[in-house]
Amino acid sequence: MLSAFTGDSTGRPDWVARIEQGDDEGWFGVGSASWAVHGGMPTLVAGIRALLMQTLHPGAMAGVHDWSRYKEDPLGRLSGTIQWLISVTFSDRAMAELESTRVGRFHDRVRGTYLDANGIEREYAAGDPELLSWVHVVFTDAFLGSHLVWGGPIPGGPDRYVREWAKAGELVGVVDPPRSEKELRDQLEAFTTAGIVKSDERVAEAVSFIRSPGLPRGMMPFYRVLFAGAVASIPVRYRRMLGLRRAWWPAITLTRGVLVLSGRILGRGSTSEQAARKRLARLGLLDQQDVAGAH
């Protein structure tokens, strides 16, 4: 399972090993809200929820439709996103900035036109402030929302997580990212009340693909449960826009079971967090006995 998501047959790609390198604590560190949220198993659901929500902005959807290789190589695209998320969370600052620059270079060539919610043709570029803000807001909302359903306590609570992860948004060019849970909710609501988000045939096509993305056969029963859990965790208004309904069976409970099972299969703690702890111990910022203290 881990190898499918990371794009590496060992489940521990080279970029995870590079997290042990570097000369500083990174943007967050031991005891941070970002480490707690991104080092937990609910991230498996959060990624699905974020992808579903992202489709509701017609500009973001146009960029995916026109430029993404998600249908030909869904795991490749996913592994690239995971690399950025984990690197920014656990690496030193230089590696986090390098990964964010990599994402930005890809965005530079993503341009085109789309029909907005009012049927007006608009130009888009992946680096547009509105699109960057949308992707950051739904990403933050998905990971926070999933952790609140299936994860443990967040050091400092949701406000601290949103405030910390605002830095990741800034690294990829987001202007004025939310810095509290209320600001996050307000910014998400603003996209809706302004009539920016919409549902159309492209959304339906993308949702259909996300529902059944062509993963290895042995993974699909588990993925179907995680997908249902992601759908159940999405607020009703967005679920309806996506054309999705909550499963008749207890998706939240069964998703919790799959996450527990996945945690047992993958082992105790995050390998990325363990790598970061080794870096901190080498720098004298963490006692050696705390290196293996990943939750």
Q: Notable features of this structure?
A:
mainly alpha; globular; disordered N terminus
Description:
The structure is a single chain. By secondary structure, the chain is mostly helical. It has one domain. 61% of the residues lie in helices and 3% in strands. It is built from 15 helices and 2 strands. Strands 1-2 form a two-stranded antiparallel ribbon. Strand 1 and strand 2 form a beta hairpin. Helix 6 runs antiparallel to helix 7. The N terminus is likely disordered.
The value of Rg in angstroms is: 18 Å
Cα separation of the termini:
20 Å
In what order do the strands lie side by side in the largest sheet? Answer: 1-2
Helix content: 55-70%
Overall geometric form: globular
Characterize this entry briefly.
The protein is mostly helical.
Secondary structure topology:
Blueprint: H1 2-6, H2 14-18, H3 33-38, H4 43-54, H5 58-67, H6 74-90, H7 93-108, E1 111-115, E2 121-125, H8 129-150, H9 157-171, H10 181-193, H11 201-211, H12 220-233, H13 236-241, H14 251-266, H15 271-282
Antiparallel strand pairs: 1-2
Helix pairs in contact: 4-8, 4-12, 6-7, 8-9, 8-10, 12-14
